[in-house]
Specification:
This protein is an alpha+beta fold. It has helices at 3-16, 32-36, 50-53, 84-94, 97-110, 114-134, 176-193, and strands spanning 72-83, 138-153, 156-173, 222-243, 246-267, 280-295, 299-306, 311-314, 320-323, 326-334, 338-345, 360-370, 373-382, 390-399, 402-411, 414-424. It is elongated, with a radius of gyration of 26 Å.
């Protein structure tokens, strides 16, 4: 199978349930407010999003549910994050660069002239540009789609959500030999395109019949693909207690998880790639847990762990992927007009499929100048240095019981966006 189409399929599956091998599974961003505030939420989450980050925060509520309108039904809730190189690869893949090069070589072998030589050189240069974009790069794509119902009450709260988190994790190995080979083709064919003689083509680039050899048949570059789609049916419950005159809340989120795992290795020599042959589906139970301490009405500290039970998943072709607990600490200041929070991963997030580890620290700010409007800013830094810094922002607007949220994030090499529609009750 050609490399560009294979890459496109991998990235497409990332949006729909699979893909490549890249960064470790992070704590996760599950909603527009979380994206806009840099992923902070362990101590700063609102009641309609606490089930994703720290369910204990559902209980930091001092009104009965019959007297407040802090409940929220949300559908849809959509978050998408991807590396910019994904867009370049998809654009290049849609152009069938390797097939175009093969066709140009066939045309040249049929009628070797300046025009057909120029076409070979041009297509080889475009394919080389694609390989440059891929060269030993990790590619990351992630999406979350779901809905939720949350209901904070007097000193307690609960929520239900269903969501699918899709991690597209993968890396490529582009060899120097492949790049050098394309350089030689480009140089040789540009000479012909400029009026040079066909006999000037190096002997090792033509076969015994004098025909130009297709370089893609000689490539050694490869890619390692792994994908995880995690579907969760979860119920969160939280209770607040008095702790030396301050508010201590404990939350738990038991959940049923369906995990679809895929992992493949492919190269230019592969005639096909069938993800179904490596896919396996697992259904199991797991749990998230969290605690939060609110002091003097406005200051909070929180600690939460996602996926407390470690899991290992084996693909049908015998490759292993793993999902380990992800603990996170948060601190926040919260009042009616301003929320400011800082979160940090307590330890490095372990790889799913042999990719690089990550350890994020994030900061988020929400300003509410009007009751119906929120403005948010956020920042993420990876302490391991494997990812570039990311900046984010977003808005939320509520008209009576209808609530809308939009967010956008941007790093040097990545982009994210999120949307949510909800009904307050």
């Amino acid at each position: 199978m050609n490399f560009s189409r294979f890459t496109l399929k991998a990235l497409t599956l990332a949006v729909a349930c699979s893909s490549l091998a890249v960064e470790a599974a992070s704590y996760g961003i599950y909603d527009p407010r979380g994206l806009a505030m840099g992923g902070t939420g362990v101590a700063s989450s609102s009641w309609h999003q606490a089930q994703y980050y720290n369910s204990a925060l559902l209980a930091l509520h001092d009104e009965n549910e019959d007297d407040s309108r802090d409940g929220r039904f949300i559908i849809p809730n959509v978050v998408v994050q991807f590396d910019d190189v994904v867009e370049d690869i998809v654009d290049a893949a849609s152009d069938d660069l390797d097939q175009r090069l093969s066709a140009s070589i066939n045309d040249f072998n049929t009628d070797p002239n300046q025009a057909t030589a120029g076409n070979v050189a041009g297509d080889a240069r475009e394919l080389q540009g694609l390989l440059d974009n891929l060269a030993n790069e990790n590619v990351n794509s992630e999406a979350f789609v779901g809905f939720s119902v949350s209901e904070p009450s007097l000193l307690e709260g609960g929520a239900f959500y269903f969501g699918v988190r899709m991690l597209a994790l993968g890396d490529s190995t582009i060899t120097d030999e492949d790049q050098i080979l394309l350089d030689r083709y480009i140089g040789a064919l540009e000479v012909i395109a400029a009026g040079g003689d066909v006999s000037s083509i190096p002997a090792d680039l033509v076969d015994a019949n004098g025909n130009l050899i297709d370089p893609t048949t000689q490539f050694n570059s490869s890619a390692d693909l792994g994908g995880v789609a995690i579907s969760e049916w979860a119920v969160a419950a939280a209770k607040q207690f008095d702790f030396f005159g301050q508010s201590l809340a404990v939350g738990i989120t038991p959940k049923i998880m369906r995990v679809d795992v895929i992992r493949e290795t492919t190269d230019f020599a592969s005639t096909e790639i069938d993800f179904a042959n490596s896919q396996r589906t697992y259904v199991n139970l797991n749990v998230d847990m969290g605690v939060a301490l609110e002091m003097f009405d406005h200051y909070r500290i929180g600690f939460a762990v996602k996926d407390l039970v470690p899991e290992e998943f084996e693909t049908a072709n015998g490759l292993m992927l793993q999902l380990k607990p992800r603990p996170r600490f948060g601190a926040a200041y919260v009042n009616e007009w301003v929320t400011f929070g800082v979160d940090v991963d307590v330890m490095e997030n372990e790889p799913i499929a042999g990719e690089a580890t990550t350890q994020d620290v994030s900061a988020g700010l929400e300003v509410s100048p009007f009751k119906a409007f929120d403005f948010r800013l956020g920042y993420i830094q990876d302490l391991t240095g494997m990812k570039e810094d990311t900046f984010a922002g977003g808005i939320a607007y509520q008209v009576k019981s209808l609530a809308f949220e939009l967010s956008y994030s941007r790093g040097a090499l990545s982009t994210g966006a999120a949307f949510q529609f909800g009904v307050a009750f």
